[in-house]
């Protein structure tokens, strides 16, 4: 298979598996999405979705959020992990949104990435899911699968994002990155991986990865 044929196979298979794409993080507007994505760093979406309702009950906009102290925010979000850093980030960015952006979440990468605790991946998720701007946020699932599928060399997420944007049509990015995440969780996880259920890797996967899998299976 040529690289283009492999890319087409990925797109067609993912569309078949996920014609309707669930949104991983519960939110109701750009602000609540931004906070949820920030909280999801090195945590799970399931855990974040349990905690955000508790936080948003007290503050679901920057004006109410800055009325809470950093300590109060930290106590609520403690179960998601990294709470000292995340609580400072949430409080700090809420203050900046009020001071610089009239309480609104800015609709450009530069302004988003200038906010405390907001990196490129968080900004990409907000741009794609809140504002519909084409972006390709790369998380651990996408990074792993792009390597397994021999579509990226897997050196770092920056390179993986470049490769994904180069290979996949721009108009598909916003759906595709979510489809890959769901596929990675369900069929191609890092642990407990069953290659027989992973049709994409089984069909187009990197040979060294498949060989390694088979070797471990036999041992």
TrEMBL record:
HhH-GPD domain: residues covered: 39-186
Swiss-Prot/TrEMBL catalytic activity: 2'-deoxyribonucleotide-(2'-deoxyribose 5'-phosphate)-2'-deoxyribonucleotide-DNA = a 3'-end 2'-deoxyribonucleotide-(2,3-dehydro-2,3-deoxyribose 5'-phosphate)-DNA + a 5'-end 5'-phospho-2'-deoxyribonucleoside-DNA + H(+)
Entry-linked SMART domains: ENDO3c
Residue intervals passing through the bilayer: none
Gene3D superfamilies, alphabetized: Helix-hairpin-Helix base-excision DNA repair enzymes (C-terminal), Hypothetical protein, domain 2
EC number(s) per entry: 4.2.99.18
Enzyme class label: lyase
Cofactor, how bound (note): Binds 1 [4Fe-4S] cluster.
Origin: domain of life: Bacteria
Keywords noted in UniProt: 4Fe-4S, DNA damage, DNA repair, DNA-binding, Endonuclease, Glycosidase, Hydrolase, Iron, Iron-sulfur, Lyase, Metal-binding, Nuclease
One GO MF term: endonuclease activity
Essential cofactor(s): [4Fe-4S] cluster
Function: DNA repair enzyme that has both DNA N-glycosylase activity and AP-lyase activity. The DNA N-glycosylase activity releases various damaged pyrimidines from DNA by cleaving the N-glycosidic bond, leaving an AP (apurinic/apyrimidinic) site. The AP-lyase activity cleaves the phosphodiester bond 3' to the AP site by a beta-elimination, leaving a 3'-terminal unsaturated sugar and a product with a terminal 5'-phosphate.
Protein family according to the UniProt entry: Belongs to the Nth/MutY family.
Protein name per UniProt: Endonuclease III
Native source organism of the sequence: Flavivirga algicola
Taxonomy of the source species: Bacteria, Pseudomonadati, Bacteroidota, Flavobacteriia, Flavobacteriales
Gene: nth
